[in-house]
Amino acid sequence: MAAAFFLHGHTPAKRTGEPIASRPAAAPRPPLQVSVLTVRTRRFADRIVATGSLRADESVDLKPEMDGRVVGLYFDEGQNVRRGQKLVQLNDAELQASLQRARYELDQAGIEARRAEQLLAIGAVANATYETVMSTLQIRRAELRLIEAQLEKTQVRAPFDGTIGLRAVSIGAYVNSATTLVSLQRIDRLKLDFAVPERYVPYLQVGAGISFRVAGDGEPHPCTVYAYDPRIDAATRTALLRARCPNPGGRLLPGAYATVEMPLAAIDDAIFVPANAVVPGLDEHGVYVLSDGKAHYRVVRAGLRTAAEVQILGGLAAGETIVTSGLQQLRDGQRVEADAAGSAAVPGAGSPRG
After folding, report:
1. pLDDT in tens, 248-261
2. What is the pTM of this model?
3. Strand, helix or coil at 73?
């Protein structure tokens, strides 16, 4: 009988029907220790700090409407002028001669028209001849008005009350419609342009009071917002606002850099949560809400953001409990255990936003 043997390092296979030893069951994972916060509402009043620029209430670079040589300057630099005041005169000698000729031709046409009317009354002239004479009269009147309009263009007048700047031409200079003669600014009141981030657009109000400061003058100057651009700048993602403020004595000058403070409308029942409790995403924001010992992910609508908090506009109600720590380890529906000692509290709000 052949002897049975086994190779070194190998064990014989188990016989069919032999029970296999079962592994012990894995112990359930303990709940994750997290800090939590009960959501509460509170009154919130914030303000925006932005930068802006002052501009004149009205501003224009005066330019002639036609080419010509400057023969008269009727202002002093820095002078206050009135609307309609004559400032610059261009050479109009040729037009004045044309005006005299047009007046003479109009007088002649008038005489011929009156004679034609008398002849027509007695039947001594044909209707066609009479109509030709009357048409000539109307043409002469139109020619006169045209020359008078051209003469008006040889004069540059102030379009509004304001202060003259520094002139850029002298008497004798030849100018055209692209030549700047002098600037005119109305600075008894000023406009203030400033931009705010688009997330503040829902809080913008026409008539809102703001204040600003300029370099070298620490005194706050009050302003009132009277309009804003009904669009968002695609490059900066900001909205442009414009305010108007008095400027007695012309102390402030257009073009000055301004630091603006704009209070936002107060919210009586605002909901704010710690910024570290919000899970940011590409298209949404979310929080983990504690319910029945489990953390459930919920999409929320975020609003204003302060240094330490985020306003929740929707998706979360007062009285609910949210998770404020360990968010990177959490999964939707995971069992958690609140750590009372590490529960978060909402810090104070109301710091200025930039």
Report:
1. 888 899 999 999 99
2. 0.65
3. strand
